[in-house]
């Protein structure tokens, strides 16, 4: 295999590994220049050496960085104070990865939100239940991780509903329930879909800081880049994926850095804990609306 062909293979492998990344055709919008500007900017001069340090396993002193619990009923309820973050993990559960993510979160007393794929929850119902049993919030992320903006509106709504059902079924056998949090795969949405979901009392979980942990960067580099974005914003909803080994590897360092910088992790929960068998997708709930 020639070097160039090998390089192309590696690139393709990288694209296939991409979780919530934009579709490959949109990759150029993630310019490396912008990333490097963020990494090498003057925001975090003190931590620049992080990327140059080896990452021994579990040398970080755990500590409680669990913050307040924020009960939300709509997307606009998610208002964070300075030095507050929400941790989100998409695309799981993934056997061999999600368990380790849970262990690290537990070490730091942090509760996160997991936006699960219906297909993954269906394949790993016990693991999905374990996430919820550990006190984390479980939402959905479609059934098969499709780009909803490329589908007909009805097909997209069906895909979302199928994902919700599969996660709910996976949780139900453990006596747990799905929360009405949803994230668009690839962060790719349409006005119609977003409006439909919001009117159906779904909480669309947007992303303030994309860790881009689907890029094949060194864990410390991802930590440094994500911290730089966080410090620039002061707070935010952070996107990770619990399907990558590098995310497993980087999380202890990232949480230790959050602790060092006096951030706290806000736990999101649904405000209305009435049975989730509501008509979220069809958005037809006239009886309920009369009562509001
Ligand atoms: Zn995703």
Tell me about this structure:
- This protein has ten helices and nine strands.
- The longest helix is centred in the middle third of the chain and has 20 residues, at 153-172.
- Helix 7 links the parallel strand 5 and strand 6.
- Strands 1, 2, 3, 4, 7, 8 and 9 form a seven-stranded parallel beta sheet that branches. Strands 5-6 form a two-stranded parallel sheet.
- With 292 residues, it is α/β, with parallel strands linked by helices.
- Helix 3 (98-107) runs parallel beside helix 9, helix 5 packs across helix 6 and helix 8 (219-233) crosses helix 9.
- It has a domain at 80-272: TIM Barrel (Alpha-Beta Barrel).
- The protein has helices spanning 3-17, 32-40, 98-107, 118-123, 125-133, 153-172, 191-199, 219-233, 245-260, 286-290; strands at residues 66-72, 84-90, 113-116, 137-140, 181-182, 203-204, 209-210, 236-241, 264-270.
- The structure holds zinc ion.
- Zinc ion is lined by residues 19-20, 90-91, 141, 145, 185.
- Residues 19-20, 90-91, 141, 145, 185 line the site of zinc ion (ZN).
